[in-house]
Specification:
Helices cover 53% and strands 4% of the residues. With 265 residues, it is mostly helical. It folds into three domains: 95 residues, Fumarate Reductase Iron-sulfur Protein, Chain B, domain 2 (Orthogonal Bundle), CATH 1.10.1060.10; 48 residues, no CATH class; 82 residues, no CATH class. The protein is built from 17 helices and three strands. Bound molecules: iron/sulfur cluster (SF4) (2 copies).
């Protein structure tokens, strides 16, 4: 579906969502509000509010779908705080398909909630850099200098910086891992032979962000697979699997990226 078509999807009068895959009320109704999922939800554990838990978000989706609440800054922030880790799905004894609910909710938010200009700019930047490893690598040099000159430690210790930095930037900075030389280029070969007798052939996804910020995780994965008799195939030129875009409601970008990725593996 083209951008113009997506933008032209309108909300039927008196309805909170448009007809393009809205969250399914039947799925919402499977939640019995037992709260088992709360202890496994990282956003609830950090923020500590019901509205930042799976149960609270399902409540809000329900209230929005029946017109008791609106898509507003107050409600949207609680959907934004969901990491999409889906720990709640495996914990839920009632089998609530929260994954489908949040996947349906996010594109509705993107289409019908007007974000502030700052948020729009930040999101545009994220979606035009993070799914593209080569673009992300262009950012590495200044980040490398930032870390090597000891500025990172200074910024992290400075209470003034913490106050002055926009919250989202401060959050991103706080999870920036130490950069290694491997971050600057993919080093794993296209085929890594099995150790000993070959029992399986396995395709490996490097991950747009993981290959740059956590390459040791990919190295360890290859070691474990090959030690267990797997030949590991790592296709060159693999792009983004579209997960980032899909899980953030960027439907159009996801639809373009997913088939390309499919062809590269
Ligand atoms: S999502 Fe599942 S675990 Fe969480 S409150 Fe609903 S029924 Fe209980
Ligand atoms: S997917 Fe969202 S609601 Fe579920 S456990 Fe993760 S952060 Fe919590």
């Amino acid at each position: 579906m083209a951008a113009s078509e997506l933008n032209s999807i309108s909300v039927p009068q008196g309805q909170p969502f448009d007809t393009q895959h809205p969250p399914d009320k039947k799925l919402m109704d499977t939640c019995v509000h037992c709260g088992f999922c709360l202890s496994t939800c990282p956003s609830y554990r950090v923020i500590g509010k019901e509205t930042d838990s799976p149960r609270g978000r399902i409540y809000m989706m329900h209230d929005i779908s029946v017109g008791k609440a609106a898509l507003s800054e107050t409600t949207v922030q609680h959907f934004d705080s969901c990491l999409g880790c889906l720990a709640c799905v495996t914990t839920c004894p009632s089998g609530v398909e929260y994954d489908k609910l949040i996947a349906a909710m996010r594109p509705q938010i993107e289409r019908h909630y007007p974000r502030s200009p700052y948020e729009q700019m930040l999101r545009k930047l994220i979606f035009s850099i993070f799914p593209y490893p080569q673009r992300l690598r262009m950012l590495l040099r200044p980040l490398w200098v930032y870390q090597k000159l000891g500025m990172q430690g200074w910024v992290r210790r400075s209470p003034l910086f913490k106050q002055l930095m926009p919250k989202t930037l401060a959050a991103m900075e706080s999870v920036l891992p130490p950069l290694s030389a491997e971050a600057f280029q993919d080093r794993l070969p296209e085929i890594v032979p099995a150790q000993g007798e070959k029992r399986y052939r396995v395709g490996m996804i490097l991950g747009c962000v993981q290959r740059i910020f956590l390459p040791e995780v990919n190295d360890a994965t290859v070691r474990v697979l090959t030690a267990n008799g797997c030949e590991v195939a790592i296709p060159k030129g693999q792009g983004c699997c579209a997960a980032l875009s899909h899980h953030q409601g960027q439907e159009e970008q996801a639809k373009i990226m997913a088939p390309r990725y499919d062809r590269s593996i």
